[in-house]
């Protein structure tokens, strides 16, 4: 079946060798500009998705999906609360914890930290500290032995290694005639972990649950219970449902509240990068305007002849819309192909560039995430594709409208 003449003429104008080679050059620049903008947008969005995923993995590797806290800072009968929460079908594990602010002292070095008492066997089911141990093991935390596991930055600040003694100063003290005397207890460093998040590496220390209960005089009570879910994105809904299932004076929070600032910052940055790079695509797409304006000027005689042969203004518009859309689609196709290929292989391309130039984009001694992560999401690719195609079509409207208004008599007067 023969194509309409508008499509055939539009395709011919796109691929034909023009008398004015400058128009061909501008068309090529427009295609390459669209391709470069689209590829950059896809790669940057994929890298931002990768950073967001990496942050989520690192944070939730040591934080819980849901926490149940006692209203007064302690939660009695935690085993019953854990059993009630575990009845929810999406809760896969529960672990008790004791948590308090304390001071850690070694010789003249003093640092504030969050001291968390855990049950190592149960904690391994809700957090992945064992997979981030630099030295020692989490299982070396045994009741009555007063061992402590420190974050790598905290251990570096205190200048301690395995086997060294650390004095933990609890804020709750005993009242004596001389005033309030804080409780002190010497702990032995049995492990050092590094999760790649400064908040945890520099301010978190782990001790055995029983030792924490003795240090803070909680008896058999705990600060709360940590839960792990089979789907971390369901945490807000599950938290609301678990709150109605437990019978205790407690409140329930999920990871989207306790670490909202991290993910909100990444999300805002992703949106801003999308807007900024969309401007690059818009500039490249609107180069099509100049290409088509020059093409209309160059083809005024052809337009006049078509009009005298009976072509309607809408048909003339269609010819140049097809020409501009084809330029945009070729650039868009090249950009999507290049952007997707680079996003999927950025873990190979970036190290190759670093080795070739002898540089490192993310130095390990400065950034905790030293590699460029990439997480290609096809909905981003489709969003970029639709936006670019729409911009390319909009860019063709004015030149096409101008072509449709060409007066045949004026155009042929000097031919």
Concise description?
This protein is α+β, with helices and mostly antiparallel strands. The protein has helices at 5-15, 21-62, 78-86, 120-126, 152-158, 198-201, 209-215, 235-243, 255-258, 260-298, 300-308, 313-344, 346-357, 378-404, 408-412, and strands spanning 66-70, 91-106, 109-118, 133-136, 147-151, 165-176, 179-193, 204-208, 224-229, 250-254. The protein has 15 helices and ten strands.
Would you write up a description of this structure?
- There is one protein chain.
- With 415 residues, the protein is of the alpha+beta class.
- The chain has two domains: 5-57 and 262-412, no CATH class; 64-258, no CATH class.
- Helices cover 54% and strands 20% of the residues.
- The chain has helices spanning 5-15, 21-62, 78-86, 120-126, 152-158, 198-201, 209-215, 235-243, 255-258, 260-298, 300-308, 313-344, 346-357, 378-404, 408-412, and strands at residues 66-70, 91-106, 109-118, 133-136, 147-151, 165-176, 179-193, 204-208, 224-229, 250-254.
- Strands 2-3-8-5-7-6 form a six-stranded mixed beta barrel, surrounded by four helices.
- It is elongated.
- The model has no long low-confidence stretch (mean pLDDT 80).
What is the CA-based Rg, rounded?
33 Å
Q: Describe the biggest sheet?
A: 6 strands, mixed, barrel
Q: What sort of overall outline do the alpha carbons produce when their principal axes are compared?
A: elongated
> Which percent range describes the beta-strand content?
15-25%
Number of helices: 15
Structural class: alpha+beta
Oligomer: single chain
